């Protein structure tokens, strides 16, 4: 019999249900998908969604990390631990191998490796014959992403053509591709940074330690805090300060800056996120600030 | 109103809505106002917008910069694609789809409308109803958006005059009646000055209804309040066959999303197309048991009997099974730049099922400005037409009017794999 009143889901339950549905569509429609797992907070949520989508079975895809070689060691250790706990296969492909092969040539040794990840990713897609990569990008992160489809088609060169996207209606996703082409699937497209933190809180998800407030040597560059590391040493004349900071995203060491904060628990981070005045990428990603359209440009070239 | 004041607060779910109107009716300004007043626009975004506005010689911040994200759009100063924006009031999360107004972007409006549960149709108070207004309302109606809100904007430019509002309201009501629109509400606004968006302002004491935000906060999040039949398209079958865990040996979980209705442990179900019946033994999310599942929940169903079931099948309650059909009549919006070629075979994706389809007949093309029916032999991009399709295998369909999930389908061109059409079964 039919019901008399329609009960509805809370916003987190709705977002979770949508993300599970999308992951299952990828698994149902594609023959060789892979889930991109960086150890960052968005991909931690993606793993929980994959558990909810497929347990008690195994994930119908391996995990893969494109390692720039410039990641924080805490994040790499966390990545390996999480994959082992889940008992799922983790593939790591590294930029350094692409550099050794000559497919990545840096302009100078300290050039940010972030945008070069596309090359290694495309090489891995070819090596394993993946027809879909499931990623944790969100539409609220960036303007070009706001217009990308949940199932986003990429040609043989991994290129995104924003003006020639497949229309996406209802929840009828089209993840079809010909050999050599590729689908990028984004199950948490409709989540915001606040949703991600609320989900982490509700599901009690573990995160790499650098997401929480800790003391770290930094140099102030305008409004950004540059962490002082082996890769990013202080320059002569820089003033090094010990500051309480946390990371809002964890990317390549050379292009990810922390924010000043004493939030050392998820609850405190949530309170800060709700009152913050700067967007996640604005606060922390130097690579997005170079040009208003730089994410769109990188995506056209095959970026996640 | 800010997210903080309400954290953690009660959760009033999620509402997806669409804004539409002619160019310059104030869509972007209205979205900007909602984001701004809910503190969703953050300082650095505002900074970047100020810079860009100044570069273009504008004195005020151009709020449309928020939604116009692609390089080509910024260069041309128009919205090409559907942009999705998010804000939260602390009690409810909103997903806004901003679709461009021009006729050549009908397909984008159709796309945006397909997931919306409420549409805000903007009318410039000085101009009154335009052809675009009629077109957008028709599309919203066709796509089955349950709640329409006609926002008569720029009231500041007509001295907040009640008679102007009432006049447009009367004209629209007549039109709504003609095309069969039911749940329509009206609100006078100034998106620019803010009157009746979040704050009431003091200039329209004659309007006694709720503000725009109050309407959004109170709108039902479900796309229907009518009881619906249980529909569960199978997306994926879980057979762990884990030799280390004998308990899982016979595990056979049918994974999918409750597209409508609800289901509880013990309910009698039928699996289509086989027609075999069983009862629900367990309902799980990620291996954890729950007693019942409701509309839009993604779950795993376990049945008491072993029934051979795979992706593309549908589990329904035995008492309310849909019809299996091999011929469908539908309203189809053509989305592709390549016109439909009636001689070809296309692929139809309906729920998790994919079947080959041929065009049996094109009944007529609908002129969405005049609502007239015109005979045509093919469909071009943005055309909306009534067709008959012949299917190679049956699908388990409901009329779109009674069930959005099992009444909708997309048409795929197998040679390019592009999504070329959107259909609604009549
Ligand atoms: N006076 C007045 N101007 C408005 C109002 N809403 C929008 N505008 C102006 O109308 C113009 C077009 O608005 P915009 O939001 O870009 O319209 P869109 O094309 O529908 O997105 C801009 O110059 C706005 O500042 C309003 O309520 N009152
Ligand atoms: Mg606009």
Automatic annotation (TrEMBL), chain A:
Cited InterPro entries: PAPS_reduct_dom, Rossmann-like_a/b/a_fold, SO4_adenylTrfase_ssu, Sulfate_adenylyltrnsfr_sub2
One GO BP: sulfate assimilation
Phosphoadenosine phosphosulphate reductase domain location: 33-258
Its EC number(s): 2.7.7.4
Residue numbers spanned by region Disordered: 281-304
Group of enzyme by EC: transferase
Gene3D superfamilies, sorted: HUPs
Biased composition (Basic and acidic residues): 295-304
A Pfam family annotated for this UniProt entry: PAPS_reduct
Annotated keywords: ATP-binding, Nucleotide-binding, Nucleotidyltransferase, Transferase
Name this polypeptide is given: Sulfate adenylyltransferase subunit 2
Organism per entry: Denitromonas iodatirespirans
From TrEMBL, chain B:
Nucleotidyltransferase is among the record's keywords: yes
Top enzyme class: transferase
SUPFAM superfamilies documented for this protein: EF-Tu/eEF-1alpha/eIF2-gamma C-terminal domain, P-loop containing nucleoside triphosphate hydrolases, Translation proteins
Coiled-coil ranges from the UniProt annotation: none
Molecular function via GO: ATP binding; GTP binding; GTPase activity; sulfate adenylyltransferase (ATP) activity
PANTHER family: TRANSLATION FACTOR
NCBIfam families associated with the record: CysN, PRK05124.1
Protein name per its UniProtKB record: sulfate adenylyltransferase
Organism: Denitromonas iodatirespirans
